Amino acid sequence: MSVNAVTPYRRDYSVSADVPKVVVPQKAAPAPDESTPGPTSAPTTGATPAPPPTNAPTAPPSPSPGPAPVPPDPAMSSPEEQKLDEEVRATLKDKPDELEAYEELLTTSTFAYPPGKTERIAMLEQIKNYPETKVIEGFGRLGDRAWFAQQSAEDQQRSAKMVAFNLSDTTPNANKVRENTMDRVLGSDDVKIDWRGIESETGTTYGEAGESGMWWWKEKYINLNSDLVPAGPGKIDAGDQDAVHVVANTLAHEINHTITPGGNEQSYSYFMDEYRAWYVGYKAENGEPPVAGR
Ligand SMILES: [Zn+2]
């Protein structure tokens, strides 16, 4: 099964690799749509002294960068978000614990002003697919990751799917290795996760890990092959072997490398690093360790 997965992994595990050293794609301009042509005037009825805004208890939408927890305010949601919110709540109707986790998620900065955030939509779509506490809590941490905020809307959908798949208890072969991998991915910004189309002349390249930067500044990254994981609101198709391999096996494999980056390719330790990463990746995907002779 997908033997060629192993070889290309560490291909780029060095600065000199041929990975285009694209520096952090500057915030893919999520178009906050400043141009809200607010209905400034309502000159229709001059008679009645325009009733005061009925419910506007929340602070004015000052875009203060402060981390002040903003309470969820449906009025700040776009129509698309409101629709998704309703659908999520319908899904969680008889699940008090999950609903509580969801309410908690809504207090995070991801769900604060302004409306229409693509990462929000990606999360809501996946909560519909995976109405599970662990997944919802994982999204709370995903929202804290700088690399997630910088991704395109489509890649945010891929990332949300990846997180949901790995944290869900309902996916085929769900297992602890996937959860541990997510702890590493979501626990800090130590490793930047990115999606990009990865061409390969020798079989399929599922992903690659490496470091960018120079001298004292280094950033670990993992690039996953976006060609193999469709964007969109659906979930990871359990029958799509390539997609499952990328989000479960490749991610666990590469995360393992970032924990113990190896050295000389001729060395024993390099071999052991590769073996360990392969083992962990296999277990993440299949839910059980590899068996000799398989
Ligand atoms: Zn490897």
From TrEMBL:
Residues 1-84 are annotated as: Disordered. Residues 17-48 have a biased composition (Low complexity). Residues 49-74 have a biased composition (Pro residues). This is Uncharacterized protein.
